[in-house]
Every structure is written in C-alpha cells, then in structure tokens.
Amino acid sequence: MRSRARHVFRSFLALALSVSAASWADEPAPKTEATDQPPEAEIASRADAALDQLVDEMDQASLQEAFRILRSDYIKHETLSYLELNRAAMQGLLERLDFGAMLLTKASREAQDSPFSFHAEKLNPSIGYVRFGKFKKAEIDELDEALAEFGAGDEVRTLIVDLRSPQAMADFEIASSILSRFREVGEILFKIRHPREERPILFTSRDAPKRWNRDILVLIDRETGNVGEIIAAVLRQKKNCFVIGEKTVGMTVEYRDVPVGGDRILRYAVAEVVLPEGESLFQQGVIPDVRTPSSTKVKQAVFRASEKEPLAGFVFDHGRPRMNEAALVAGTDPELDYYVARSRGEQTSWDKPILRDRVLRQAVDLLTISRFLPSEEAE
Hints:
Helix content: 25-40%
CATH class of the domain at 112-294: Alpha Beta
Distance between the termini: 14 Å
Structural class: alpha/beta
Number of helices: 13
CATH superfamily of the domain at 112-294: 2-enoyl-CoA Hydratase, Chain A, domain 1
Shape: globular
Largest sheet: 6 strands, mixed
Radius of gyration: 26 Å
C-alpha cells in the first residue's frame, strides 16, 4: 500500500486471519490442495505420478516394443487398432499438455465465457469495488465511470479489483486498456513472445480518461481467466497493490483455434505472455500475497445475487435487532417481531444460512486492520 508497506501487512497477517476466521468458522474450507483430497483420490494421484515417471524413462525403441507386444499378445489385441492407438495417444498428449492444448466443441467453447456482468459499488465510504464480467470493451467504459465516482473526492482510499470471472481466450488489447487505468503512460505492461519470432510484441500503458493512483486490492482464484491473470500479475508489481485469494492456473498464453473434423476444435497455445523483465506465467500462475481458499459455488451464487441487490450485504454482518437501552427509553421492543414469527413456526431472515464471499470479506478485514498499523511516514 502507498502508506502501509507490504511487509507490515505480512507482519500482521496472523492477526487479520484470526479476526476474519470468526466470520466463517462454521463454513468448511473447500478442498483445493492434494493433501485435502479423500484417500482414494490421493492414491490415484500418486499412481498417476508414478506412471508418468515410468513412461518418461522409456526411450523410443522401448515405447515401440511395448506397442508391438500389446497389439500382438494383449488378451483383446484385436481392439487395439491403429485408430484406437492414435486416439489413446491424442488423449494422453492432451492430458500431458494440460491447458496448453485442449479439444473443444462449439458448445463447450461458448460455455467457457463468463455468465457475469460488470459490477461496481461502494462497499463502505472508504472502499470502492469493481468486478469484471466478460472483459469486453463496454466494461472499460463502465470502469471509467466507476473510477470517476470513486476518485471524485478523498473519501475512497482503496479500490478492490475483482478478477475472479472466468475467460478462456485472451484479448490482449482489453488487458492493456484496463491496465492503462492504473499505470503511467508509456510504461511497458507485458510482452507477447512467439517462439518463431525474434522480438516480442510490446504492450505499453496508453493515455486513459480516468486513472487510479490510490491503493489497490486484487482478488483472484482458480477460475480467473488469462486476461485476469495478466492484469493481476502486472498490478501486483506496483507498491500499492496487494493480492488476495487463490493461485491462478497460469493460462497466460495466446491460443489458436483450428477445426479438426466434425464439430471438434483444437485449441492450442502459440505464444506466451511475459512480464517486462521476461518472467513467464504460463503454467505457473499468480500466487496471492494472502491465500484464502473459497467455494466456487458460493462465489458464483454471490455474483449472481449481487446483480439484483447490493454486494455489501454479502460482506458485512448484520446482527438481529436486540433489546437495548434506547428501545427501553422509547418503549419499543425490537425483538417482538422476531419472537412472534418464531412462535408461529415461521422462518425469518435471521434464521436463513448466511451467504458470504469469504475472499472479499478477507480483503475488507485486512483493510480494516491496516487502519491501525503504523504508516511508512511514521517509521
């Protein structure tokens, strides 16, 4: 942060997490790491790794001999036609390349686009929030409107940039345009490096109608698409940016789609995005400063609900009205309606399960705690 150094945040991280934990103590953490998998899945994962190592240690002659033996002596060798072997080879190759190459249909390609729309809101007087949906040009205009509103005075000190919407195909011009709202004109943002070209393509920050120079908190997770990954990686190089959430998958590449028969489409990486110093994020991803596991289903439910009602309601706690001194003086009972409803067997809004965006809540908690930390000027 501009007035609170990154190392100060990390020093007080344990305090931040302990405060936040009380808000979701009854919500089980999602299983995202291999160690969190059920025993059967963990055993299967280890078996796959062992098989990969065995195959990797075979040379060309050994592989050809294994194919020959299976085609001649396997109990159902007649099923191992060259077509079947080619299918198996393609499946294994795609699995090894992971998201470096994939086989899609027109329907599955369209389904990868984000179902969400752009959202901007003041979470409280000092925190602004923007969330990208499909990362389209129209959303940049909406971003400018939000930045103009948040930057009109000195009240909003921090902008939370939510990059947790999925997107498979990168639009580098969109990424560059969004980043131009946060970086100085002329700065190198990122490069596109093609393996057959000597010089990379440079993307630099351009002049923009609105620019944000105050503190930034970035939210990412495993659904963050490649445009979001590029934006997060570039923004985190700034001193006043902090990243919260989960590690991204590392899809920072330029894909090419080629029809390969029927409705099948082969999508494969032809170039990779690198940072100004040459650091590649492909298959590496962006690692958050504060790791906060979250439920994808809950996050998506919050995104959908926030299109109809304020997002702040899914972040801050609102306790049930209780009898207090002011109510006694006024001769009222704020708990009466609740007790009447319960006596009739009716469920009230206070009895329903609370829907919370735990990553966004963590970000707000860190900002709240940072107000009490010493500033760089004080040091």
